[in-house]
């Protein structure tokens, strides 16, 4: 990995700006990593680094459960006649019950290095393993959250930390199961945790928010109290929630309240641009219309949603209502920003039997349209200035490798299209910058070996049942 550019600048022959592709673009940023100039139609100044290929804005990953990377690929067997999300969840719980802080940190560090090498420059960590194996709080109640923060800092990825409020196992206040003991918090303990983490996040340049896990896991009164408490701490903090991911969840919500999940939430909370509705897969026409009008971001995780058999989000209906969206890798069955975009488009093609669904009149190139929308929506969900190449945003950038066989000799728009749809799961990314700092160079993170070895050891210990 090379050192960051000493003059805080980067030149690219092709760069994807918020309005579309531009030629001969010069970026300059301040010492704190904030863009101060974005200048198209320039000549490369002497001494300025020249990108090794087309330049893309860094992609925010708006939904991550870092520890689940440790079981990715290990649940692909039929354990019963009808495997589903719910049978997968039982296996995931067993894995979560074994984690210790060092193992969580090693898995998260390995994952975050993977993310950077795969084109993600920031991550929203939906963090819900809070307590020791017996369900009791650690001496420092923030122990596991701090482990995640250390992993992000070491990898050099931008972080939005979303501690998860989890209280019940089903609608109507159903008591939590024994397998959920590491997740459970009172509302007061959650607000105390946020107070504890706020200065640490500020010192690290991370963003702190809150994640009520789901309507089935947080009853109405605690949800109201938690949101009021969050506003007292930071009235601008992001709020993420799992919602309408499974048809059973929808049916159970209707049986409990007489309303579908998104409709209930819109009627009982002040949903606005601070919110990310994660998955939101199963909505009716009114929920799509009103959800989009709320300005909340739809948090789409296509590889996980496919892996778990969740269903397919109706992108066209959300788009018609003007809804914002972004992508996340969720359970990390895949860790590849381009692959999430490809899976999203292919899901729409399969459900509509049309091609090039997520193109727009303004951006007919599908990969370009998806990248711009996902960066904007991801930045909103992260509540960080990572919305692309504009003055005042972070200098988060991904440089494609112009020598990669899939994109060699192509223009910027065609190279991005080939990167998303035709790179054959190989890495067409040359370099990654986060806040102007080079985190990946010549396809590799400087700590790739250490990250992989730490991940391997942690997973081996967990699979062998070792402490």
Describe this structure in words.
The protein has helices at residues 85-96, 101-117, 143-155, 187-204, 220-233, 247-257, 261-268, 285-293, 302-307, 315-320, 337-352, 366-382, 412-421, 448-463, and strands spanning 9-17, 20-29, 35-39, 49-50, 55-57, 59-64, 120-127, 158-165, 207-208, 211-212, 239-243, 275-279, 297-300, 324-327, 397-400, 429-434, 437-441, 444-445. The chain is an alpha/beta fold. The chain has a five-stranded antiparallel beta sheet with strand order 5-15-16-17-18. Strand 8, helix 4 (187-204) and strand 9 form a beta-alpha-beta unit. Helix 2 packs across helix 14 (448-463). The longest helix has 18 residues, at 187-204. The two termini are 35 Å apart. The model has no long low-confidence stretch (mean pLDDT 95).
Brief descriptors of the model:
single chain; 467 residues; alpha/beta; five-stranded antiparallel beta sheet; five-stranded parallel beta sheet; 14 helices; 18 strands; 37% helix
Summarize the structure.
By secondary structure, the chain is of the alpha/beta class. Helices cover 37% and strands 19% of the residues. It has 14 helices and 18 strands.
Identify the overall geometry: globular
Give the biggest sheet: 5 strands, antiparallel
Q: Terminal Cα separation, in Å?
A: 35 Å
Helix vs. strand class: alpha/beta
Helix content: 25-40%
Identify low-pLDDT runs.
Answer: none
Radius of gyration: 21 Å
| Proportion of strand residues | 15-25%
| Count of beta strands | 18
Strand order of the largest sheet: 5-15-16-17-18
Total count of helical runs of at least 4 residues? 14
> Residue-averaged pLDDT, rounded?
95
